[in-house]
Amino acid sequence: xxxVRRFVMIAGAAALLMPALADTRLRAADVKVPDPTKVxxxxxxxxxxxxxxxxxxxxxxxxxxxxxxxxxxxxxxSPDGRYVVTGGTRAxxxxxxDSRTLELVKVINVDIAPEHLAFSPDSRWYYxxxxxxxxxxxxxxxxxxxxxxxxxxxxxxxxxxxxxxxKAYVGNxxxxxxxxxxxxxxxxxxxxxxxxxxxxxxxxxxxxxGEIKGINIAAPTNDGRLLYAADSDLGVxxxxxxxxxxVIKTIRVGKDPWRIYMNHDxxxxxxxxxxxxxxxxxxxxxxxxxxxxxxxxxxxGVNFAAGKAFVISSTSGFVYVYDMKTLRxxxxxxxxxxxxxxxxTTDTADxxxxxxxxxxxxxVIINAKTEAVEKVFNVGLFPWGTHIMDSKDNxxx
Amino acid sequence: xxRFRLVAATVGAMLLGTVASAQNSSLSGRVSNSQGxxxxxxxxxxxxxxxPGAPPMPNMPNMPGMADKTTKxxxxxxxxxxxxxxxxxxxxxxxxxxxxxSQAITVPGSTTTFALNLDPLVVPGAEPAAPRAGEAVDTxxxxxxxxxxxxxxxxxxxxxxxxxxxxxxxxxxxxxxENGNQHDDPIPGVKPQVTYxxxxxxxxxxxxxxxxxxxxxxxxxxxxxxxxxxxxxxxARQTKGITAAANDHAYQxxxxxxxxxxxxxxxxxxYADVVGLSGTPPDLxxxxxxxxxxxxxRLVRQNEIGLREAWLRTEIFSQRLSLxxxxxxxxxxxxxxxxxxxxxxxxxxxxxxNNPVLGLATNGSGFAAVFDPKIGLNFKxxxxxxxxxxxxxxxxxxxxxxxxxxxxxxxxxxxxxxxxYRDTNASTVSSTAWxxxxxxxxxxxxxxxxxxxxxxxxxxxxxxTAFSAGQHFVSGGVGFQKxxxxxxxxxxxxxxxxxxxxxxxxxxLVEGYxxxxxxxxxxxxxxxxxxxxxxxxxxxxxxxxxxxRLQATF
Lengths: 397, 554
Known about the structure:
A: four-stranded antiparallel beta sheet, globular, B: 16-stranded antiparallel barrel
């Protein structure tokens, strides 16, 4: 082949391929997380960072520092896997991280004390709840800007989007109603009261005029048709029909239910009742309490895996286990002594739990089947919560 | 010929590329900072957006970057994308030290040239981004830095923050070598050692949080004090038999317990209960086999304060086994029926909150062990002095064992079933008994309860009180909670008991109550009892006893 011929061939090929090569080249060296489903995100409240732990190797593959005194609260990945976001409670800001490079790409001013958050199913809207601002900041994940602040809420703790993304339901911990947001207009469109405050409440100003403990979250059934919302002060769970946005039944549970957690098979839900240290297991077919079982103090979360429920007792150092077939207690797992446990996420295979152990700066991996425990230390200071993309147990406290 | 084919193929390929380009567009722009200075070497990304009306993103639709186009801005901040198909896109720009610029665009659209302005990324405490190779730190960068600092100053001014650093004491493992030097990490020749050390944390706390934490800490370390006080007026109306002294008499008993709780070591608790009682319960005039007022069991001497309980409890074997020793009330550990166990919140009659065949009238020094692996099965064992006048434990040893099981019967809620066995050698006469106790939910708000007890050896020694001497005992009833009530936290129940002594004396007792929870600390309950006593060889007599109970617990 002559030099001319070789030149012409290379030039021709280059003319075809150059635009594509130039536009689609990936900076492999910058990519720290090639697959966002393969990492556990860890919120480190005191080291003000999000740590990313590879699920397979159990190694920290990267940390994103957010700034001094940010105190991030909850972390979540967008459903499209593109971004990781968190609210900095003491900075009054939302933080947007590129999920591949783990670079902090945007800091957005929000309202007072941002904590829990949610994404619309299409990943377009990031709703950041601001409990002390009594508002939700709406962040457009295309322009990466705050487009609106929704006022009129009362200590909004958790937001749940409807499956079609047209509505969002907000649990108000400072009141006894669930707010319905019209997502097209980002406006509060309805208030759904969960239960009536008993008339005798006026005899008890210490309880009812003191600190209010209302609704933490409205949690959906698997088909999204019903929502279940526990009210702590009233000791009830309200069942909301999302077609009409009204309460169709009220179920009385134990004292001071923290919130409700839905079993993955759609048969049961659990409220940890911190007032009497029990759990109430609700049968979702009959909407009745199927069992009330002894549990531990200061419960912060419930995870489901391997046919069991794992109830985290924050200050006792135990995770209480329940068999979800027999609805009987199945022992408890000792995590440590003088430790404080926070919240956990479950992997998508429902095999392992990743529990934040804040006093040991560790993430505790619990094998749901064998109940074996493994600790990964030095994940950051005061890990407050964990998150895995597409996990059914992504929550915060 | 071969050369011709090659040239023709090359030209053809180039033409194909040109045709393809004709269906696409180009777009370009410039990346600059907020003051207008150009940013070279910025990463510019073009990402397609789903078409309008496309279904919501399913789980894991797109891995990031799969359909993205990226390029870099040139020395003058300019960038270009060629061959861009029609559609909606997100145009983004990133540069170290700057926030991401992101906007939705349409191709082809009204404009093909975009000015992307990047704002400085404010991360207090982070190292400033190093300039990329070839970039110079210029005046503009300094101006940007000043803006960042101004923003930080504004944040500090607007936020309520304590300036003192937060600290926390941690238990840590260190390594000490043969010369006594401490190392953080293991090296050859060191020994691990546990110590405690303060560490600094970087949490910003508001003043409110700081105060709350201080109060919680103080409460945790303090001796906790609790009060349980009750007033229970009752009235007796004779319904059967020869008119007795108690007929149409009114009674009232007042009781106050002050209890102290303190954590004194790891998983170790101290508890003391000081009780004072005063008043006249109906049981002083109605000599039934069991007490019509359960509080009477505590009444030893009028207007005197007594030590009811004082014990230490520790938990071992991962807190599966708890050991309690001291002055005990063993009924707090055994036969804990959830629907009928507590004279302060449930039935007032002793026969409906206790099993008289247990035969334990007074508290005393003793020991209790409870093994509970939290699987719905537990084992209990305890013993205590049953005669307060005895001079040693051997002469008045009362021992008790119990197995409890949490069952779920088909179609029903959870049920607790217990079986117990006791032995006592009070009054030098050995007496044994056994019994069962159950509370079974038949609906979320309805619980059935029942007890049975059978004494093996007739008792009746000097140290046994009449109400503890039942040899065959059965009780049952139903309790309601969280349903069929006036107020959500109210409860009510009805129960029946039958006590029969070996000598032939019998008692039939029925009671109903309704308990209003007026506040978290105050309850008011209404009771109506009827006791029919059938003494062997004597005329039967009965009393209707209405009563109230005002119970404060805080």
